[in-house]
Design brief:
By secondary structure, the chain is α/β, with parallel strands linked by helices. A five-stranded mixed beta sheet has the order 1-2-3-5-7. A two-stranded parallel ribbon has the order 4-6. The protein contains two helices and seven strands. It is globular, with a radius of gyration of 14 Å. The chain has one domain: Trna Endonuclease, Chain: A, domain 1 (3-Layer(aba) Sandwich), CATH 3.40.1350. It is about 20% helix and about 40% strand.
Length: about 100
Amino acid sequence: MYTEESGYRHQGDSTYDGMQVDLVIDRPDSAIHLCEMKYYADEVVINKKYAQHLRQRQASFKYFTNTRKYLFTTLVTTFGLKSGKSTIGLIDHVITMDQLF
């Protein structure tokens, strides 16, 4: 499938906070992956505050880009994600270093 990849950054101002997405993968099937890259020596743990940040980032991306595509949150990390209450319904895909190399 042909995709377009880029990063995304919105400069903040007095009305809106700035935001950035490490990697955006735009697919022709009306889907966009918002990729969060994390390099840790262990599984990534997402606390309540960070989960709220990811939800807000997705809402802001949708607002600023005016996209009507479905948004997936994808975590690209060294050793995976430690599941918890804050991750339920938040992370759609997890890609580990083993899967990349």
